[in-house]
Design brief:
By secondary structure, the chain is an alpha+beta fold. The chain is built from four helices and eight strands, in the order H-E-E-E-E-H-E-E-E-E-H-H. Strand 6 and strand 7 form a beta hairpin.
Length: about 170
Amino acid sequence: MIIPDNFSPFDSTEAAHVAQVREFVGRVAEPASRSTLEGHLTGSAFLLSADGASAWLIWHEKLQRWLQPGGHLEPEDTSPWHGALRELCEETGLTEADVESDGALFDVDVHPIPARGDEPMHFHHDLRFLFRVREGVEPATGRWIALTELEAFPEESLSRLARKVLAG
């Protein structure tokens, strides 16, 4: 099961996203495939600093905004968590040994991706996992942002991630 039965959405927005992902996965033959044109599953990593006070964001060139590391799941990914970890390492220069995670699903978000070139507008059904960087380790690209600042970020899905961490 992509989303565990015991997963508790943080708010009504996330509850709607959970329902959308469950419906999508139950209806589509290949929900992780980029060839599924209406959308596909993606994996993201919400990376916290060692002290848990800040999150790491990277500049997304295609979308022209700061986002958490993440992206499309690949055939070699054994789970969405592994896809999120792979994307985290690819996009930050970190290694698996540089981070820790309990592997539990932390957040679910569904968002539109604008049409670009031959690719039509579609949805990313994003499964998000919490990671923490080990003490003394710094990612190579991106920037830290305090969770208290991110909590007021105009990007609702990022502010929700911060609110969830701050709520404990």
